[in-house]
Amino acid sequence: MNFLEERILSDGIVKEGNVLKVDSFLNHQMDIGLFDQMGAEFKRRFADTPVTKILTIEASGIGIACLAARHFQVPVIFAKKSKSINLEGDMYVAEVESFTHKCKNNVIVAQKFLNSQDHILIIDDFLANGCALQGLIQIVQMAGAAVSGIGIAVEKGFQPGGQIIRNLGFQLESLAIVESMDAETGVITFREQA
Ligand code: G4P
Ligand code: NA
Ligand code: NA
């Protein structure tokens, strides 16, 4: 078991509706030492991959992306979410659907921060259905930039996002892949990774 899986077992709480609460170290209070370790692990997994910028999405991806950026020594861009678009300058906009919140959101990045020379590492905290992630991928492609890879803290392996993204051919590295979790017993199992 790796350091993130161990932390999830000790401090994560399984809620009804297949929700894993990790707000004591990841989603609300943030353990920066842990984030730094995650950044080092992303750097190890993407060691041979060109990365010019890290792209994430507000809010919970930002902290993880910032610590990862220390290891890659590149800037972080976070995509903004908005229900309506107030077009100030030139923006890349992708429409994404949230299954959890049952609504559509726009994911927005200013065009000036992405260009066709960029190699983008996408970072996020959770991967569930992958809608937000697909929005970020679309935005990178709109800019004519390359997706170097995708780094996720916690993938919910029993939801379809991971398989969809891997089937598209992207290198997706999730530090913990939850295979199953049970709200009644609190038992969490992880997928074995090489
Ligand atoms: P998806 O299609 O993009 O995978 O997202 P989904 O609608 O399934 O999830 C909506 C939000 O809930 C996302 O955050 C996602 O990170 C988060 N989420 C999904 N499953 C879990 C879970 O088991 N535990 C926790 N803690 N979060 C989960 P968001 O609302 O888009 O962003 P943020 O502002 O929280 O970063
Ligand atoms: Na997120
Ligand atoms: Na979240």
TrEMBL record:
CDD domains: PRTases_typeI (cd06223). Pathway: Purine metabolism; XMP biosynthesis via salvage pathway; XMP from xanthine: step 1/1. Its main location: cytoplasm. It comes from the Bacteria. Keywords: Cytoplasm, Glycosyltransferase, Purine salvage, Transferase. One of its GO terms (molecular function) is xanthine phosphoribosyltransferase activity. 5-phospho-alpha-D-ribose 1-diphosphate binds at A128, N129, G130, C131, A132. Its EC number is 2.4.2.22. It is found in: Cytoplasm. It catalyses: XMP + diphosphate = xanthine + 5-phospho-alpha-D-ribose 1-diphosphate. GO terms for cellular component: cytoplasm. Transmembrane segments: none annotated. Xanthine binds at L20, N27, K156. GO terms for biological process: purine ribonucleoside salvage; xanthine metabolic process; XMP salvage. The keyword Calcium does not apply. Converts the preformed base xanthine, a product of nucleic acid breakdown, to xanthosine 5'-monophosphate (XMP), so it can be reused for RNA or DNA synthesis. PANTHER family: HYPOXANTHINE/GUANINE PHOSPHORIBOSYLTRANSFERASE, XANTHINE PHOSPHORIBOSYLTRANSFERASE. Homodimer. Belongs to the purine/pyrimidine phosphoribosyltransferase family. Xpt subfamily. This is Xanthine phosphoribosyltransferase. The lineage of its organism: Bacteria, Bacillati, Bacillota, Clostridia, Lachnospirales. The gene is xpt.
